[in-house]
């Protein structure tokens, strides 16, 4: 597993907001955000925008709950944000998340994805001890990790973590 080096210089990892329980016969992929999830997606997107956390590119899983979360970010960022939906972010490995990040040339990239892969990506980027210290209860739904690259030490640091 290779940790990405810049670019990007800033990575945003956003776990999708709370999803509805699957209806009988419904695929996991097709679960939308529940009522609280819609509200939390809007709250976390607004908090990010208010703090000036604006990615150059948002890459989201194609799962319905991720699309709903990404849509909230898109609205909060003023509708000029480039958004890409990538099937490979659904039900995949941390290596795929990191490869997708590493392939980007933009200065700031946001991934909207799923646990446990989102938590594993954060842990890989900042290390186990820093991850456990920052998030002792794990990576919550609608949680946004803001990571910056420290070129002097060639490591990623968790700059901020926002929750709805």
What report would you give on this structure?
The protein has helices at 35-50, 64-76, 94-102, 117-126, 128-134; strands spanning 10-15, 57-61, 82-86, 108-113, 144-150, 155-162. Helix 1 packs parallel to helix 2, helix 3 (94-102) crosses helix 4 (117-126) and helix 4 (117-126) crosses helix 5 (128-134). The chain has 164 residues and is of the alpha/beta class. The chain is globular. It contains five helices and six strands; from the N terminus they run βαβαβαβααββ. A six-stranded mixed beta sheet has the order 3-2-4-1-5-6, sandwiched between helices.
Features:
six-stranded mixed beta sheet, alpha/beta, 164 residues, Rossmann fold, 34% helix
Topology:
Layout (H helix, E strand, L loop, with lengths): L9 E6 L19 H16 L6 E5 L2 H13 L5 E5 L7 H9 L5 E6 L3 H10 L1 H7 L9 E7 L4 E8 L2
Parallel strand pairs: 1-4, 2-3, 2-4
Antiparallel strand pairs: 1-5, 5-6
Helix pairs in contact: 1-2, 3-4, 4-5
Label the overall shape: globular
Give me the secondary-structure category: alpha/beta
Q: What's the N-to-C terminus distance?
A: 31 Å
Q: Major β-sheet, in short?
A: 6 strands, mixed
How many distinct helices? 5
Q: Low-confidence segments, ≥5 residues, pLDDT <50?
A: none
